[in-house]
Write a structure and sequence with these properties.
Shape: elongated
Number of helices: 3
Number of domains: 1
Order of helices and strands: EEHHHE
Number of strands: 3
Strand order of the largest sheet: 2-1-3
Helix content: 25-40%
Radius of gyration: 17 Å
Distance between the termini: 23 Å
C-alpha cells in the first residue's frame, strides 16, 4: 500500500486536496480522484452555466442536437460536457504525515 494526495480543480474555482490516503495502486488513487471530481461537478450542476441532464434535454438544439434526438444522445452530450470540466491529479507521498501545506 502507498500513500497519495488527491487533488481536484473544483468547478467553483479552487483546488481541493484530500489526503494523504492509502491506496494499493496509483490507478486506484486516480480513480478516487476522478470520483471526487465527478462529485464536485455534480454539486454545481444547474448553477453558473454548468448544465445538468435536464438542461440538455430541455434545450437540445442549444447543445448541438436535433429537437427529436434521443435521450441517449442527450446523455452522450451530458457526459462530454461533464468530462470537459473535470481536472484532477494524484501525487504519491511518503506517508500519512506528508501533507501539502498549500492546500490544507
Amino acid at each position: 500500500m502507498n500513500w497519495y494526495r488527491l487533488y481536484i480543480e473544483s468547478v467553483g474555482g479552487s483546488v481541493v486536496c484530500e489526503g494523504p490516503l492509502e491506496f494499493s495502486s496509483m490507478e486506484i488513487a486516480t480513480r478516487a480522484a476522478y470520483d471526487m471530481a465527478i462529485d464536485d461537478y455534480e454539486s454545481f450542476e444547474g448553477y453558473h452555466g454548468i448544465p445538468d441532464i435536464g438542461d440538455i434535454m430541455d434545450e437540445r438544439e442549444e447543445y448541438g442536437l436535433e429537437a427529436d434526438s434521443s435521450d441517449d444522445e442527450c446523455w452522450e452530450v451530458y457526459y462530454e460536457q461533464r468530462e470537459s470540466w473535470l481536472c484532477y491529479w494524484v501525487v504519491e507521498v511518503s506517508g500519512p504525515d506528508d501533507i501539502d501545506e498549500d492546500y490544507q
